[in-house]
Design goal:
Elements: H1 2-12, H2 15-23, H3 28-35, H4 39-52, H5 58-67
């Protein structure tokens, strides 16, 4: 089941952008507005990211992302919804 959720979120191309925005400290509502998603979808993705990275809360996610200079999260691919050049 876990693999199916990851594949779904990767196909929609939202994991990377949500990871980066959450890592910048944006709220679920702000992320949802910015990416034109529902708040529930953002919450589900953030929960999945926390689980995948074995983090306990958003503060750890922000610290994790800031150490990596908001780089693409390992394992999420580099999909942004735009074609690669």
């Amino acid at each position: 089941m876990e693999a199916l959720l990851r594949v779904f979120w990767e196909r929609t191309g939202v994991l990377g952008p949500i990871y980066r925005l959450a890592g910048q400290g944006l709220s679920d509502v702000d992320i949802a507005i910015k990416l034109k998603l529902t708040e529930i979808k953002v919450q589900e993705c953030v929960a999945w990211i926390l689980h995948f990275l074995k983090l306990t809360d958003r503060i750890e996610l922000i610290q994790y992302a800031s150490v990596r200079a908001i780089a693409p999260c390992p394992g999420f691919g580099n999909r942004t919804g735009r074609s690669a050049r």
